[in-house]
Amino acid sequence: MNNYLICPSILSADFARLGEDVAKVLEAGADVVHFDVMDNHYVPNLTIGPMVCQALKADMDRRGIQAPIDVHLMVKPVDRLIPDFAKAGASIITFHPEASEHIDRTVQLIKDHGCQAGLVFNPATPLHYLDHLMDKLDVILLMSVNPGFGGQSFIPGTLDKIRQVRERIEASGRPIRLQVDGGVKVDNIAEVAAAGADMFVAGSAIFNQPDYAQVVEQMRQELAG
Ligand code: DX5
Ligand code: ZN
């Protein structure tokens, strides 16, 4: 049960008080900081880069808070930013295969910089990108919305895709994490877990509520079944 990781997406956090808001959500019991990077090119929105990641990591260190920073790169090209995010304190870096000319090289670049590597699938991205990478990936991230914005509705067809990826992970025998991102809330997190996910990204469902601890606790109760 404790294998489940709740990953608040800071896209819905208060950017004017980012350090404080992240500290609050981690104290509320969340596990991983999901850091959404958008470039107004690969996706139609613009967010934050390595400098903010570095500042956030420094703030977490000052506060004595330890939690992995999970950088979700929605940028094209992707390789150039990887060393910067690794230096800025990322523990996990995930990217979209459509944003890389050489997917295996990008995965290797992330690992060479000491981070865990993950591949991200948009709702309509086929799973065949996994065919030659199952022995290298640490995380597979399935988008349950089209990337670019928080607060969208979960696309139900993702559940079947989660089941397919779970089967592939079991067949690989490797401890690959299955993360789901987009429209995850208290009322559907159990269904997402039942389909096979074990990392749950939630932005608006957590940050749009006044009491983060209450939402995180409700999610854990749903996950406990
Ligand atoms: C979407 C981002 C998500 C987003 C999730 O492109 O990758 O991480 O912030 O937000 P919610 O949970 O509100 O759908
Ligand atoms: Zn994300």
Description:
There is one protein chain. The chain has 225 residues and is of the alpha/beta class. It has one domain: TIM Barrel (Alpha-Beta Barrel), CATH 3.20.20. It has an 8-stranded parallel sheet with strand order 1-8-7-6-5-4-3-2. Helix 4 links the parallel strand 4 and strand 5. Helix 1 packs across helix 2. The termini are close together.
Percentage of residues in strands: 15-25%
Hetero groups in this structure are: D-xylitol-5-phosphate, zinc ion
Run of helices and strands: EHEHEHEHEEHEHEHH
Reported CATH architecture: Alpha-Beta Barrel
What tags apply to this protein structure?
single chain; 225 residues; alpha/beta; TIM Barrel; eight-stranded parallel β-sheet; 8 helices; globular; binds D-xylitol-5-phosphate; binds zinc ion
Q: Gist?
A:
With 225 residues, this protein is α/β, with parallel strands linked by helices.
Q: Strands, helices and their partners?
A:
Layout (H helix, E strand, L loop, with lengths): L4 E4 L9 H10 L5 E6 L11 H14 L5 E6 L7 H6 L4 E4 L7 H10 L3 E6 L17 E5 L14 H15 L4 E5 L7 H7 L3 E4 L1 H4 L4 H13 L1
Parallel strand pairs: 1-8, 2-3, 3-4, 4-5, 5-6, 6-7, 7-8
Helix pairs in contact: 1-2
The chain binds D-xylitol-5-phosphate and zinc ion (ZN).
Zinc ion binds next to strand 2.
